[in-house]
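[job 4471] stage=fold_predict status=RUNNING
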Amino acid sequence: MVWIRKERDASPCYVRLTDEIGCKKKVPKGYVPVLACGDAAGDEEQRFLVHVKLLKEPCIAGLLEEAAEQFGYQPGVLRVPCDAYSLQQTIDLIYNGR
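[job 4471] inference complete, writing structure tokens
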């Protein structure tokens, strides 16, 4: 599964945090590392990067509030209570709506 998105302005809204062989990539400026934890206990956690401009969107802000309630404020990778597919679809809808 590839998480790299090509955009017209060449600045992706999200990219995969690890490459295909599992090596971690450096977080580029303007991005926040996010760990999509999923809603069910059996969901696999997936890491990816989200551009900071998307954090001000109301649906993402609501997700961040929910994450703060569920996981609290912790340093490091931001955990969100959402599966990776749903988060990717939300980001796609935000981007395509502009």
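[job 4471] summary: The two ends are 26 Å apart (CA to CA).
[job 4471] exit 0
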